[in-house]
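User: I'm writing a tutorial on reading structure tokens. Could you give me a worked example: one chain, its sequence, then its tokens, then a sentence or two explaining what the tokens reveal?
Assistant: Sure. Here is the example chain.
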Amino acid sequence: MTVRVRFAPSPTGMFHVGGARSALQNWIYAKQQGGVFVLRIEDTDAARNRPEWTEGILSALDWIGIARGSYEGPYFQSSYAGEHRAAAQRLYEGGRAYYCDCTREDVQARTGSQYSGYDGYCRDRGLTPGEGRALRFRTPDEGETVVVDLIRGEPTFENKLIEDFVIARGNGSPVFLLANVVDDMSMGITHVIRAEEHLPNTPKQQLLWDALGVKPPVWAHVPVVVNEKRQKLSKRRDKVALEAYRDEGYLADAMRNYLMLLGWAPSGDREIVPWSVIEEEFRLEGVNPSPAFFDEKKLRAFNGEYIRALSVEDFVAACRPWLTGTDTIAPPPWQPAEFDATVFAAVAPLAQTRIAVLSEIVPNVDFLFLADPLIDEAAWAKAMKEGSAELLDAATAAFEALPSWEAEPIKAALEAVGAERGLKLGKAQAPVRVAVTGRTVGLPLFESLEVLGRERTLARLRAARVRLV
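And here are its predicted structure tokens:
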């Protein structure tokens, strides 16, 4: 048997990080088993689907390493409407489904509760197809449905507690439960690896597989992904879009390493591991069924580690979109002609140790490419205290007198200026840093001044001094 897994997202919004985790798990399992990864776009909700969402899914998969052309598909669920209707008809003709004209209000009036499920009223009425008549599956009255799950063991559901559920609407269109099953059958899916939220639907789907005469797939329901309050991640409340992390400057390698840790861990006391190790060690049976906490702070720390592990050349290349304004959401505050790749290369090793996401490169180096620094007013107010004007005058004079413009002599000159005023270097350099870079924090100051150059440094010190008058 050739293992065939599928990832079946709906194109109704940005690509959820939980979906990305499921895609990676399916992808790895298929590779381990010498099987096939199938991409199916479940696009039957025409009112919510958009072509750009489908493209977003494809590009997000590309980014995390599931590249177009390396999998089967994408298939589109809407293309299989005929098969869905045919399966519904088979179930009706075989006595496994019946038509029902009950409204929700009818059921509530009979049961006396708005919370009770369907009461089976139309089971034996012998209704034929007609406008406004939904098709319901006839759930067995007795016995149990056992779901054999590689992660959760054997969850067992009493059939009598599963209501006769709708498989086709009053207009004849099949619902998700049936369409999903028929698609998996048509595509020969052998293993369904998906989020825990689908587990309540699984006994119903397994009953449909049985009723259609096909052996159900192997199930594996991975844990739900939650936020710091242990609430399921929500698009409305949480930062869940994979594209948002990509556009902020998270590295694909860091993201997929972190996503694979949501419910699973590699051997040994380690978390940051090469992808080849994850591909070798990952086991569905080793996934913890408990909810998995998506910790954005931890992801950020992961990403910083991955950035620092890059070669300087790769780091420069990774930063380039943010520095040149290509393929990023926010363009840099300078024009392309103002960017100097040689200048950036000189400070890249300094910046690489200080940023956690690539988009942070811009505020760290913008002072090098702008005619005048972007002054952070809060930083200015904090740094420019009594005596700052005189300190800037002294620093300007000391820097003018230096025989060579290098980091160490610059540092020694400012250290001497500070000592004359009873200031340690940290206090002495604060006004100079804000005057030159516009901020109180950033790259190492003296190396930055060396790259900026003597004349530009002096011009900014003088401009700051004028502002203090």
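What the tokens reveal: The first helix runs from residue 17 to 32. The domain at 242-319 is CATH 1.10.1160.10 (Glutamyl-tRNA Synthetase; domain 2).
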